[in-house]
Amino acid sequence: MLTKQQIRYCLDEMAKMFPDAHCELVHRNPFELLIAVVLSAQCTDALVNKVTKRLFEKYRTPHDYMAVPLEELEQDIRSIGLYRNKARNIQKLCAMLMDKYNGEVPRDRDELMKLPGVGRKTANVVVSVAFGVPAIAVDTHVERVSKRLGFCRWDDSVLEVEKTLMNIIPKEEWSITHHRMIFFGRYHCKAQSPQCPSCPLLPLCREGKKRMRKREEKAANQK
Known about the structure:
The chain is mostly helical and 223 residues long. The protein has helices at 4-17, 30-39, 45-58, 62-66, 70-76, 83-100, 109-112, 120-131, 140-149, 158-168, 174-187, 206-221.
């Protein structure tokens, strides 16, 4: 586990690397963001944006999603993984938005999590990005970066990772740090090919140092 000073250094370096980090899901309002985040589960933001470019012109309100047969909505998002399940959840959450929330996206995380297909990560993204509520959404990138750097333990659950990050990061930095960690994991500390040799955090990164040692050993054995 890193010290507070080391964690501060990591956060500051990520801020230097990705000063303009932001939510890359294209949306015009909280409702479109909610739909986009639901679609993004186990899917890239780039593919979601490609699909929602057409989707958000056809469907503007919760009522619009309810006005078509489920099969039609499935076809509209067919290129996205788990599209059948996501289409069902979208229609169910739209029905709940109309029945319980007057068609508006709730601003409270616990209320958002009552919606079909909306888990803690999705709710955290929505409250943070759409409503400016401090939150840390732990997606695959945030979890990977946190564990590689030693912000938390390898066997920590997603919820434990979130709680740890909330404890070690100042609350006013939760939302922006979430985006910076996503960018760091998506474009630098990648799952399959992390850019360890050029990483400014390598001296503190337990995973990176292991990778570099193995690379050096492999190179030595090939001589």
